[in-house]
Amino acid sequence: MSAVIEKPAARKHVIDERSFTHAAGLATGPVSVEPYRSPAFFELERERVFKRAWLCIGRIEQLPQINSYFTKDIEIWKASVLVTRDKHDRIRAFHNVCSHRGNLVVNQTCGVAERLVCRYHNWQYRNDGELIGVPDQKHFFDLDKKTCGLTPISCDIWEGFIFLNHQSKPEVSLAEFLGPFGTRYAGVPYFNLDETIVIQADFKANWKLIADAFAEPYHVPSLHPATLAPGFAHPEENRYARPLSAMAHGIHRHFSAYGNPDYVPAPTSKVEALVYVQDTGGVLGGDASDNAAALTAHPAINPTKDPCWSADVTWIFPNFNIDYSTGGFWTHEFWPVAHDRTHWTLKIYIPKTMSIRHRLQLEHYACRWAEVVLEDVTNCERIQRGLESGAKDTMILQDAEMLIRHSLHVLDKWVKADRVADALR
Amino acid sequence: MTVASPSLPPGFEELEAFVPYWVLDSNDQRRAARSTAEMDDIQRFYDAIVARAEQAIVHCEQFKLGQMPPASERLFKLLLAMNHAAIAVEMHGAPRAHESTWPSAVRITQGPWPHGGRI
User: Fold this and answer.
1) What is the reported pLDDT for A287?
2) Overall CATH class of domain A3-35+189-424
């Protein structure tokens, strides 16, 4: 039996009619769609945004012990990166490229090893990047192993999230890059860090289209009528799922999503009612209620402390979301591949399976999510076709779509600014 | 895969017909099975498994997760597949999201333990 069924009806929801767009100091006119369809703009994004911004590539739990490592392809850099935890417990990142003839050193996605060997000629590296073994070294000419280590990549950590910067000497630190967002969201508690559902999609649309989809709830009643709308909108009190709040935090941003307090599975939804054994409210329930309480106590989360809250979407510029809900947290990585190609990874952090019934709930949760993802991916591919046709040069944004406007505003600054410090202003 | 008959625990014979199609090893395989099935077949499976879901859950609760005898594990996998049938029956009234494309660009590359699968 779902606990949510016994929930008392909440008081009437009051929609905040103040303009999020005006409050963020943004203009209100139409915006250009060139950033979504122009290969030239995509190259500018590669050089001026993705090669200068700090990018989140994972969490520290992916390196659970000394000598753990993982690799990741960052296609917008055309690079394979190697992230290690060395014997001094330092997390470091390198280009996964051998100094000898440029081959990729590690071909596994993750593992545990102090020594990493390029299989081409068995050159050996320690996981702190030092070159420690060269077979038949005496036949090289003046080889100085000390200068032939793996090429380091700037790496720093915020709240357990690992960020990399392509600049060999980053113009700004991670703390400066995160700015007011980093301080505001410091100390938010994270739960269930060891178990994840991972959903991935490679599809034919610009990376910003999918980021935009998660930046506004206005489309929820129309595009997700069955999967999300019953929990995130209300036929009388919040028909268009207007956000509870939406704010810019320097170059980053958030919105708080409404949750329908009256939501219960429909009488015909027998399976949904049967499997939701653990529920903290809303359709994305799944975490324990004391975890949800600790999360909602943090001042950054649901900043207006609206009782009809379901989730906060935070968008860390340029391509990363951390989303917090009563049912746990999840992250989105929106990785550009080409101006019309994206690789998207959604990681949903879930409690360890506790029982048969809980496992059934997790299956329902995973397949609801996959269905939402399918709806969004299909939709993004349609938008890309629409934009590429050239029929429209601009798009029109309403107040609930403020985050998209802010994203394009910040992107424009980064593309134009010669110095990162100027792009941060 | 061929399954010895009967493949489910005693008392669940009426679910036997659904074993070949719906007993699968990963979350993504179950999603694909539902997404490519005919709605009538999904509905038949849904009606049959929902009618026995409570007894099937009680049966599976005799065992530790990940340590079930093969027949019980098959029954448990039918219960897992029930969730996917529910997406079609309870949400869309169709095998998958309206106007969605298939084959799909979306993959569940890691599902919940156990029997979630990892790609």
Assistant:
1) 65
2) alpha beta
Split at pLDDT 50, 70, 90, the class of A230 is confident
Rounded to whole angstroms, how far apart are CA atoms A255 and A304? 11
Q: How far apart are CA B56 and CA A404, in angstroms?
A: 47
- A401 three-state secondary structure: helix
How many angstroms separate the CA of residue B13 from the nearest CA in chain A?
Answer: 21
Best residue of B83, B92, B99 to probe chain A, by most A CBs closer than 10 Å: B83
Put simply, the answer to whether A350 touches B111 (Cβ < 8 Å) is no
Q: What is the mean pLDDT of chain A?
A: 93
What digits encode the pLDDT tens for the residues A111-161?
999 999 999 999 999 999 999 999 999 999 999 999 999 999 999 999 999
Containing B34, the helix (H) or strand (E) segment is: helix B27-35
| Domain membership flag for residue B119 | no
Chain B residues with beta carbon closer than 8 angstroms to that of A195: 112-113
The ipTM assigned to this model is 0.96
- Can you give the pLDDT at residue A1? 37
A56-66 per-position pLDDT tens digit: 999 999 999 99
Could you state, in order of their start, the residue ranges of all structural domains in chain A? Answer: 3-35+189-424, 54-170
d(Cα A264, Cα A45) in Å, to the nearest integer? 44
The count of structural domains within chain B is 1
The pLDDT score that the predictor gives to residue A283 is: 58
Report the residue from B100, B110, B114 with minimal CB separation from A378.
B100
Q: Which domain does B63 fall in, by range?
A: 14-92
pLDDT at B94: 97
Domain assignment present for residue B39? The answer is yes
Same fold, A3-35+189-424 and A54-170: no
CATH topology of domain A54-170: Rieske Iron-sulfur Protein (2.102.10)
CB–CB contact B113 A199 (8 Å): no
Greater confidence (B111 vs B5) lies with: B111
Query: Least CB-CB distance to A362: which of B91, B99, B112?
Result: B112
Distance of CA A122 to the CA centre of its chain: 37
Would you say residue B117 lies in a domain?
no
Task: Mark yes or no for CB contact B110/A378 under 8 Å.
Answer: no
Residues of B in contact with A265 (CB under 8 A): 90
Q: CA-CA distances (angstroms) from residue A120 to A6, A103, B19, B25?
A: 64, 7, 48, 37
Please classify residue B58 by burial: count the beta carbons closer than 10 Å to its beta carbon, then call 0-12 exposed, 13-18 middle and 19+ buried: exposed
- Asked whether residue B3 is assigned to any structural domain, the reply reads no
